[in-house]
Amino acid sequence: xxxxxxxxxxxxxxxxxxxxxxxxxxxxxxxxxxxxxxxxxxxxxxxxxxxxxxxxxxxxxxxxxxxxxxxxxxxxxxxxxxxxxxxxxxxxxxxxxxxxxxxxxxxxxxx
Amino acid sequence: xxxxxxxxxxxxxxxxxxxxxxxxxxxxxxxxxxxxxxxxxxxxxxxxxxxxxxxxxxxxxxxxxxxxxxxxxxxxxxxxxxxxxxxxxxxxxxxxxxxxxxxxxxxxxxxxxxxxxxxxxxxxxxxxxxxxxxxxxxxxxxxxxxxxxxxxxxxxxxxxxxxxxxxxxxxxxxxxxxxxxxxxxxx
Lengths: 111, 187
Fold this sequence. Notes:
The complex is a heterodimer of chains A (about 110) and B (about 190). Chain A is an alpha+beta fold. Chain A is built from 4 helices and 3 strands; from the N terminus they run H-E-H-H-E-E-H. Chain A has helices at about 1-25, 30-40, 45-55, 80-105, and strands at about 25-30, 60-65, 75-80. Chain A has a 3-stranded antiparallel β-sheet with strand order 1-3-2. The longest helix of chain A is centred in the C-terminal third of the chain and has 25 residues, at about 80-105. With about 190 residues, chain B is mainly α. Chain B contains 9 helices and no strands. Chain B has helices at about 5-20, 25-40, 45-55, 60-70, 75-80, 85-100, 105-115, 120-145, 150-185. In chain B, helix 1 packs parallel to helix 4. The interface of A and B includes residues 43, 49, 53 and 57 of A.
């Protein structure tokens, strides 16, 4: 049951977490998978790449190949203006939502 | 360490990944495959094994991706990635246009496009190639026939007839290619 709750919650916010991650700087696939995976926000590359595909098809991120001085070129993902706008709208919704959930479910005495 | 061992391990891993990704939307499958191949290609040989362990079982990667990508499930999707469907699609593309001119071919293309077995570029190249063959043959034959025929109707007739035959032959070859590629992925 707990594992299902976590999966449900992640499913709802995973795309916005990817947008948030690339909003500060372009990132490549494995870098995103590690960053978001460490925080428990995506399961792995199998979860991440479909999200990236959806975001790219929606015009919220774009990808580009970038040469590296230390090795072969990598594909990076960066946020688009439309993605920045979408992320801003999510941020405006998120905090009031979190407050409302906290008030509703309580939580002070729950481990 | 033998320099070919890490590459062999990468090749084996990518082969397992390719088999596991069959059935996913082609764009997603390609993105996963390219991303993982790219990551493994930039590592020094001593780090490859560790990264492959971190990536995990390709079946698990595919299962996660399918859970994300495919809201529909069940018999319909499974049917469109079966051996029988691959063969039927090839047969309709190769010979459907002979049974029901043009429409039969279009039905075959529709079967091709709704199946997750083939990649998007294959779905574009297949019809484009046969149309290109027909177009080039029409222009070539009409150019040759103009110097020899007595009427425009005769020129057009010869050119169209040749283009139709070559279009049909091209479709058979393309259908064979699609079937071979498709069977490799669904088996």
